[in-house]
Design a protein that fits this description.
single chain, 431 residues, UDP-n-acetylglucosamine1-carboxyvinyl-transferase, Chain, 2 domains, four-stranded mixed β-sheet, 24 strands, binds uridine-diphosphate-N-acetylglucosamine
Length: 431
């Protein structure tokens, strides 16, 4: 199993091209199930989750071709690919446990499958171990669209023989995945669907833009009420995946810890406003210039701060582990309240192995800084947690080995390459 070795202590200086967003690319790929036409997606990142989803879609009847890397012209070695997905016919409405259990987003095929064929049998999902992560909101909303849902042997068996019918759906809590799923399903439902308390995440907006390019009739994306007027079919379209705000935020926090100066290329700073404001309040210089973000940390003097995670436009839970690592270098007590996932503090004990002083109290983490981090063997427990260990290791003295790197490969494209070209001493060890 691959490991990553990091010798900490180098400042990060240079530029990093930011990849297409994993959390947008996954639902966009799934949207291809809704149409007989070809969906062309540019700026798809090279990640294990993308490969896995390609297998899930392939099982359902998708033909996928890839044009090769460098299609964005940012940096031939490390920029996204163009993917063409064509699903002339759904050959199978069964998404099996072996694949869906490895990635939660695989479950989202259920909405498009039901919308296009009236049938779907999809394994209950897996993904990062960051809480119970139920799918009740997805299932209730699909029932409201007229689907008959049965849970059998770990599978959701769903049927809508007469097609889905538009409905008014009010989510009791904000869910990114349920918003994606119901958005996709309702594009082909008859009549009007209104989603209330919809997720406002930029990845939802990106999905709507793509669905609209395919011929869907949708309004209100980026607000909490989305209106969908069903159409009878969707067509071929081309769409470019938006930049990964979580990847950009992660590298911004890395340089805030190590000191130095990074230019993050191909970023939409608007989508990172909240975390950037927090970083500025902590004393980091963050400047936006067209599609670039310049992050400079020159004085090694971070201020502590209190934050809580919230749905967009609040502080993203997917940057919580990374800012926690950063807070270990702030001078005083910082606090994080995690409000989205109840078990998303598994990085705490691993950060402690590097010398962090963090106390947990229910949904609150209290981080005491400044601590001098010291390299150690650590274990990645989930995707964002593992990258928090990488950025902490970059600021630690001596050698760190991050085990279970497969989590990182699910969500961070070419991380060793991107960091080492900015001066980090980081290499992958393959056994
Ligand atoms: C997506 C992101 C993930 C991010 C999360 C929150 C992808 C591939 N994943 O995950 O990186 O951390 O949004 O921004 O885009 N919930 C229920 N019932 C449901 C669905 C969700 O109770 O049916 C709860 C969850 O347990 C959680 C909260 O709602 O407490 C938010 O989860 P949700 O937004 O659905 O997360 P995901 O879409 O799984």
């Amino acid at each position: 199993m691959d490991r990553i070795k990091i010798i900490g202590g180098s400042k990060l200086i240079g530029s990093i091209p930011i990849s297409g967003a994993k959390n947008a690319a996954l639902p966009l790929m799934i949207a291809s199930l809704l149409s007989e036409g070809t969906l062309t997606l540019k700026n798809i990142p090279h990640l294990a989750d993308i490969t896995l989803l390609s297998r899930i879609l392939g099982d359902l009847g998708a033909n996928i071709t890839i044009d090769g890397r460098g299609s964005q012209g940012v940096d031939d070695e490390i920029s996204g690919v163009t993917m063409h997905i064509n699903v002339p016919k759904i050959s199978n409405f069964f998404a099996k446990y072996e694949l869906v259990s490895k990635m939660r987003a695989g479950f989202w095929v259920i909405g498009p499958l039901l919308a296009r064929t009236g049938r779907a049998k999809v394994s209950l999902p897996g993904g990062c171990a960051i809480g119970t992560r139920p799918v009740d909101l997805h299932l209730k909303a699909l029932q409201e669209l007229g689907a008959d849902i049965k849970l059998e042997d770990g599978y959701v068996n769903a049927a809508a023989p007469n097609g889905l019918k538009g409905a008014r759906i009010k989510f009791p809590k904000v869910s990114v995945g349920a918003t994606h799923n119901i958005l996709m399903a309702s594009t082909l439902a008859s009549g009007q669907t209104i989603i209330e308390n919809a997720a406002k995440e930029p990845e939802v907006v990106d999905l709507v833009r793509c669905l609209r390019a395919m011929g869907a009739n949708i309004e209100g994306e980026g607000t909490s009420v989305i209106n969908i007027e069903g159409v009878t079919q969707l067509n071929s379209a081309e769409h470019t995946v938006l930049p990964d705000r979580i990847e950009a935020g992660t590298y911004a926090m890395a340089v805030a810890m190590t000191g130095g100066s990074l230019t993050l290329m191909n970023v939409n700073g608007k989508n990172l406003q909240y975390p950037l404001n927090i970083m500025k309040a902590m004393g980091v210089e963050c400047l936006e210039h067209s599609n670039n973000l310049h992050i400079t940390q020159s004085n090694n003097n971070l201020k502590p701060i209190d934050i809580e995670t919230n749905p967009y436009p609040g502080f993203p839970t997917d940057l919580q582990a990374q800012i926690m690592a950063m807070m270990t270098q702030a001078d005083g007590l910082s606090r994080i309240r995690e409000t989205i996932f109840e078990n998303r503090f598994m990085h705490v004990q691993e950060l402690a192995r590097l010398g962090a002083d963090i106390t947990l109290d229910g949904d609150m983490a209290i981080i005491k800084g400044v601590t001098k981090l010291q390299g150690a063997q650590v274990m990645a427990t989930d995707l964002r947690a593992s990258v928090s260990l990488v950025i902490a290791a970059l600021a630690a003295k001596g050698e760190t080995i991050v085990n279970r790197v497969y989590h990182l490969d699910r969500g961070f494209e070419d991380i060793e390459k991107k960091l080492s070209r900015c001066g980090a001493i980081i290499e992958r060890l393959t056994d």
